[in-house]
Specification:
Layout lengths: L1 E10 L5 E9 L2 E7 L2 E6 L9 E8 L4 E6 L3 E3 L9 E9 L2 E4 L4 E3 L4 E10 L4 E10 L8 E10 L2 E10 L14 E8 L6 E3 L2 E6 L2 E8 L2 H12 L7
Parallel strand pairs: 1-5, 4-6, 5-8, 6-9, 7-10, 8-11, 9-12, 10-12, 11-13
Antiparallel strand pairs: 1-2, 3-4, 12-15, 13-14, 15-18, 16-17, 17-18
């Protein structure tokens, strides 16, 4: 299934944000849930292997946008063959963007690929979170790979790819974390911090934090501990 989502945030009268474009087709619906926030709503099971979803976000200067989802996404295997499901988020940000969906659960036999490309203007801010769990209760893990690229003024601030699950190059016993969480913030620079299977690293004008382990709730807590209590986005 082909899914396309488009949201445009624009500054309005009195410092408000208006959303002149909020539309979606395919596997996702999008609903405005606050003055400057939207939620993605799944309209079918999945994603299934072979599904292709693209989310386009534009935040103009002086506007704010928060994007969430109403429930975890469960990536399921392809009906036939081994095609992965794909979700791409492309953001053009001249204002302020928060991207904090619920976790992605990758069922056994499934392969899901996620991509975030955020292009920021000077002075723009970003807070983006990713949370992943490989396998549902009592089943073997699926496979997930995620790429995050953040640019400011055309200059890369972060470009990283993480691959987890059976067949991933860095996923070898005894290093086989089933849960992973990451946050990238471009707003205020913070120094290096480390915790239990978690680390925060500085970026130019921001920071990036990751945590990993066997259970997502423990990973969430470890990430919050290194990111700072005021930065929780889950």
């Amino acid at each position: 299934m082909i899914t396309r989502v488009e949201v445009v945030a624009r500054p309005g009268p009195g410092g408000r944000t208006v959303l002149p474009v909020v539309r979606a087709s395919g596997q996702l619906a999008v609903r405005r849930t606050g003055p400057s926030s939207v939620h993605l709503v799944a309209t079918t099971f999945g994603p299934l292997g072979g599904d292709d979803a693209e989310v386009s976000l534009v935040v103009e200067e002086g506007a704010r946008l928060s994007v969430h989802s109403v429930a975890a996404a469960v990536a399921l295997p392809a009906r036939a063959g081994e095609a992965p499901s794909v979700q791409r988020v492309h953001a053009e940000v001249r204002g302020s963007l928060t991207l904090a969906p619920e976790p992605t659960v990758v069922a056994t036999g499934a392969h899901h690929r996620a991509e975030l490309v955020a292009r920021l203007a000077q002075g723009a801010t970003l807070l983006a979170a990713e949370r992943v769990l490989l396998g549902r209760t009592g089943e073997e893990p699926g496979r997930w790979s995620g790429t995050t690229r953040v640019e400011r003024g055309g200059i890369p601030l972060l470009h990283t790819t993480v691959a987890l699950g059976p067949g991933a190059p860095g996923w070898l016993p005894p290093v086989t974390p089933r849960a992973y969480a990451a946050t990238v913030s471009i707003d205020e620079a913070l120094p290096v911090a480390t915790g239990d299977d978690a680390v925060r690293l500085p970026l130019d004008g921001g920071w990036s934090a990751t945590a990993w382990g066997s259970e997502l709730h423990r990973v969430d807590r470890a990430l919050v501990a290194v990111a700072g209590a005021g930065e929780e986005v889950a």
